[in-house]
Amino acid sequence: VCSMMVLMMTIPGLALFYGGLVRATNVLSTVMQCFSIACLITVEWLAFGYSLCFSTGSPVIGGSGRFWMDGISMRKAHPIRPAIPEPVFAVYMLMFAIITPALISGSFADRMKFGPMLLFMALWHIFCFCPICHSMWMTDGFLYKEGILDFAGGNVVHVAAGMAGLVSAFVVGKRTGFGDQAFPAYNILISVMGASLLWVGWLGFNGGSVEDHGTAVATMAVLNTQISTATASLSWMFTEWYIRKRPSVLGIISGAIAGMVTITPGAGYVDQTGAFVFGLLAGPVCYFAAQLKTYFNFDDALDAFGIHAPGGVLGGILTGFFATENITGEGSGIKGAFYGNGKQIGLQLYGIVLSSVWSLIVTYTLLKVVDLTIGLRVPVEDELAGLDVVCHGDTIGGSHHSGYAIRSRTPSEGGVSMEDAAQDGPDVSRRSNPETWNTRKASQDANRSDEFDPVA
Question: What is the pTM of this model?
């Protein structure tokens, strides 16, 4: 059941969440990326991914003993999860392997070629995800032996994907017009549906990651996930409300994602008070982190870095403070600084730094290799036309112009104007640069009668 819930997080959850935030001409290509990544990683997992993550090997990477899942049987269990058959464990962990690279795709939305994207994701799974996963979760992994706490993927999933998103934003480059024009989201309602599916699925994401701690810890992980998600939604909303003078729908669903990300490393280690603090801090921390792309001028299109990296880092650090034997079991030794184990903070930072550095280096190397061989970006004219048609020969169908018919503009007039684009729907850039967006919008409203003919 948890495996199905986590698969639902990627398809359709993440696909809808990302798909609703991109421009109308890129919705299907964004959904296609999530769907194809799910298929690609499944085949890789069967061939060698599972073995590289969860078979005995070196302290950094697994061996070949489970290539093509050789030897797994319903009559056997994996040492990490002795209470369930190994095929159940294998399919559950596959869902983590699927969603991790899919998260990265939000950083380069609207501008990366489909073929190179698939090649990059295939290589990233092998050279980035598998080593971090094995090191952190397998019994012979060096981070596992150090005692670093990562209950359900703060480092393995969110820090790794978030840092990869940061590198991708720089290496792939900014969208044409970034900083000079609005990038209207296709449909925020679709993103709300995606975020809601992510929320439901995340209960299985964290609730199923119990190792051998039993049903009580699984239940606590679910409760903590719910508390952190709801609290972070509110703390992001109130932060945005105070700064922008009004709360947005995009803001509250972004806060929910931030809360889920932040509680992930500590969901089965902390109590309900800890979960509340996780969520309370996650909202404002991730809100301000999402502004960094404005100040440092990089195009993390859908905040793959802005939410997942700071959320994963924050959650890992807070786990070092709030982990308690009241949840993990008396005598387990799994506890944080607030319960007498101050060295756990240093261990958490150690794991975060190593995961971050590894992801940054590997992602940069792989992107450069792919770029030098087959290229990463579509041509500018294809980017402006939209990846749905250019890469896949599809369109979302119909028009989406909020009650206005847009007058055709010739290339000599500058193509599609910012005023035209702003009528296509809510703009995801409002999350990171609301002041600039509001200034543009006021100017657009003043001149709208020159650019649009109202539909009768």
Answer: 0.87
